[in-house]
C-alpha cells in the first residue's frame, strides 16, 4: 500500500507539472500570436503604402506623357489638368480625378490604376454627376 500511495503522489505531481507546462505553453503561444499579429499589421501597412506609391508614380508618369503629347484616341487637347478634386453636393467628400484633358469640343477624364479590378465602374454616377453639380455652383 505504501508503494501505491507513493506512485499516486508521483502521478499527481507529474499531472501538476504537465498542467503548469500547458499553462506556460498557452501563455507563450499567446505572446507569439500577438507578436505575429503586430508583424502582420506592419507588413500589411508596408504593402499598402508600396501599392499607393506605385499607383502615384504611374499616374505621374502617364500625366507627364499626356502633358508632353496631349493626344488621346486621335483627339488633341488644349489643356491638361491633374489631380482635380470635385466635392459632392454637400461639400464634405471629394472625388479626385487623376487627369482631366480639355479642348473646345471634348473633355477626357483619365484615372490610372496600378491593379486591375474586375468590376464595372459607373462613371456617370461616380464622376460626371459630381462634375455637373460642381460646375453649376
In round numbers, the mean pLDDT is 80
Counted by DSSP, the helix tally is 2
Which percent range describes the beta-strand content? 15-25%
Going by helix content, strand content and strand pairing, the class is alpha+beta
Main beta sheet strand tally, sense and closure: 3 strands, antiparallel
Strand order of the largest sheet: 3-4-5
Helix-residue proportion: 55-70%
**Terminus-to-terminus distance:** 99 Å
Cα-atom radius of gyration: 31 Å
Characterize the overall form.
Answer: rod-shaped
Low-pLDDT parts are: 133-137
Q: What string gives the helices and strands in order?
A: HEEEEEH
- Total number of β-strand segments? 5
Give a short summary of the structure.
The protein is α+β, with helices and mostly antiparallel strands and 137 residues long.
Amino acid at each position: 500500500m505504501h508503494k501505491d500511495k507513493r506512485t499516486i503522489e508521483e502521478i499527481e505531481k507529474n499531472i501538476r507539472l504537465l498542467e503548469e507546462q500547458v499553462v506556460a505553453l498557452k501563455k507563450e503561444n499567446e505572446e507569439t500570436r500577438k507578436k505575429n499579429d503586430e508583424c502582420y499589421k506592419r507588413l500589411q501597412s508596408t504593402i499598402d503604402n508600396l501599392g499607393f506609391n506605385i499607383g502615384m508614380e504611374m499616374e505621374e508618369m502617364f500625366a507627364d506623357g499626356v502633358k508632353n503629347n496631349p493626344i488621346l484616341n486621335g483627339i488633341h487637347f488644349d489643356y491638361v489638368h491633374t489631380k482635380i478634386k470635385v466635392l459632392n453636393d454637400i461639400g464634405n467628400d471629394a472625388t479626385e480625378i487623376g487627369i482631366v484633358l480639355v479642348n473646345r469640343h471634348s473633355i477626357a477624364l483619365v484615372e490610372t490604376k496600378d491593379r486591375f479590378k474586375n468590376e464595372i465602374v459607373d462613371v456617370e454616377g461616380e464622376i460626371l454627376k459630381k462634375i455637373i453639380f460642381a460646375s453649376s455652383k
